[in-house]
Amino acid sequence: MEVNVFMSRLIKIPLVLEPQKEGGWTVTSPILPELATEVDDLKQLDEIVRDAINAVMELYEDTGKEFPSGLIADGEKSPVWFESLISAEP
């Protein structure tokens, strides 16, 4: 049985949320073009993106393509700088 080399790793990836006329957002990444998904509620963004990234990593493993090492964050050895999208009440 092959062990997933990405298991329990932090992935730091820029995302683009494009609002759709019919509602919701299309989520893509300029660095990982294979990542494309949709989300209706931003409260589900983390889960939806996690699933999409896992699918892309599986695609890379299946095709033998090397996953960009610069996207793997090592939060145990050094700080990880990231931006987050937070819904705030006025």
**Topology as a string of helices (H) and strands (E):** EEEEHE
> For the terminal residues, how far apart are their CA atoms?
51 Å
Number of strands: 5
The percentage helix is 10-25%
Largest sheet: 3 strands, antiparallel
How would you write the strand order of the largest sheet?
A: 2-3-4
Tell me the fraction of residues in β-strands, as a range: 15-25%
Task: Report the C-alpha radius of gyration, rounded.
Answer: 15 Å
Your description of this structure?
The chain has 90 residues and is of the alpha+beta class. It has a domain at 16-64. It is 21% helix and 18% strand. The protein is built from one helix and five strands. The protein has one helix at 45-63; strands spanning 10-11, 16-19, 25-28, 36-39, 72-73. The strands form two sheets. It has a three-stranded antiparallel sheet with strand order 2-3-4, with helices on one face. Strands 1-5 form a two-stranded antiparallel sheet. The longest helix is centred in the middle third of the chain and has 19 residues, at 45-63. The protein is globular, with a radius of gyration of 15 Å. The model is unreliable at 1-7 (pLDDT under 50).
Quick summary:
This protein is of the alpha+beta class and 90 residues long.
Structural features:
single chain, 90 residues, alpha+beta, three-stranded antiparallel beta sheet, two-stranded antiparallel sheet, 5 strands, 21% helix, globular
